[in-house]
Structures are given as C-alpha cells and as structure tokens.
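[PROTEIN RECORD]
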Amino acid sequence: MGFGDLKSPAGLQVLNDYLADKSYIEGYVPSQADVAVFEAVSGPPPADLCHALRWYNHIKSYEKEKASLPGVKKALGKYGPANVEDTTESGATDSKDDDDIDLFGSDDEEESEEAKRLREERLAQYESKKAKKLQNFHSYWSAAVLKEPALVAKSSILLDVKPWDDETDMAKLEECVRSIQADGLVWGSSKLVPVGYGIKKLQIQCVVEDDKVGTDMLEEQITAFDEYVQSMDVAAFNKI
C-alpha cells in the first residue's frame, strides 16, 4: 500500500490516478491523511496531473489549519492504493510486520494456492464494485450538471401608430417604424386602419422578449420620428 516515491513522476502519477474519483486521501473532508501525503510532495504537481494539482492547491489552502484537521497522522505507506509498493522507510519497516498478516485468516505461514485464488477473486470483485461506483458517480453528476434551457418569456404586441394628418406619407412612416432594431424584437404583419376624415393609422404587430424589449422603449423610439408620428398606443398585449 502507498503511492511510491511522491517526489518522482511515477509517484505523482499514482497519486493523480488515485484522486481521479476522490476529493481527499481519506473520507469526505480534509484530514491528517491529506497532511501526511501533502508533506511528502515536494511541490505542486505538473499541470497535466490535474487531479493531483487540484488536490494539492486545495490542501495548501489549509496550511494554517492543518494541525487542527481531524484524524491521526499515520505513516505515509498506510495511505493510497493497495496495489502499489510502499518505498518509504516506514513502509520498509512495516512490510516485515505485514508479512505475518494473512488477510483471509489463514494460520499457515505460506499462502496456499486456495488462499491465493480467493484473494484474487476478492480483489477482482472489489475492483468491479469500485468501477461500478465510479460510473454511477459520474452518471449522477452528469445528470445534475445538465440543465434544461431556460424558457424565454415573450409577448405579442399590437401597436397603433397615428400620423399627424391625412397628408402624412404612411409608407415612409412604416419604414421608419420597421427601421427600429433591437435584440429580442421581431416585426410582424401590418395594415392601415381608417380612423376618420381620410386619416389612417398604422397597425403593426411585433413579438418581443420581455427581458429585453418593453413598450416604453418602443414608444420612445417610434415617437422620435415626430415628422410622421403623432402618437403610439398599445392596442393589444398578449403573453406567448
């Protein structure tokens, strides 16, 4: 168990792979395990080891608080993946004691073929479960991050634009109105509606995005063409 030599590229690669699906060396909060491994790293990992670099910078932010982090600091070789040889001095010492431990409760000093087979089967089962958990983890967060596109609130507005008199050039008046362009504004159909004494008003449809275009803005810009426009009224306003 261990990361190997954390001052070497190989050791940092093992650390990076180990942290691919973990935020911390042990558990879900910073602990003395992170402090022990952090102190064994000589400096920030290279940028291509993104998981190790992310973890290093995060633990570095606890520099003033590391003594108060939970847990008991153990030998460096007690952390990390099980299939990596511990090359630290403590690991070399501990390995003598580990030789006497039978993970499957056997009293025989030498591991039998049956015990070896069982151990390999259990390790295979562990790796399979770990891979499944990792897949589920990524699926969960992918679903959580994906968001449905926000609905854009729109309205359909019918405007009455009145000229000064019957001599007003209505074609030019409509041209002026349609010249108003804005993000979230789309002009639609139009027609001339008689209002009396030979005078006709322009009735024109438009669709607007509520967050971008309002009737006050339309009135201000349309009535600015005061050579042709006397006034503007909202004839109909409907949410889409």
Notes: The mean pLDDT is 84.
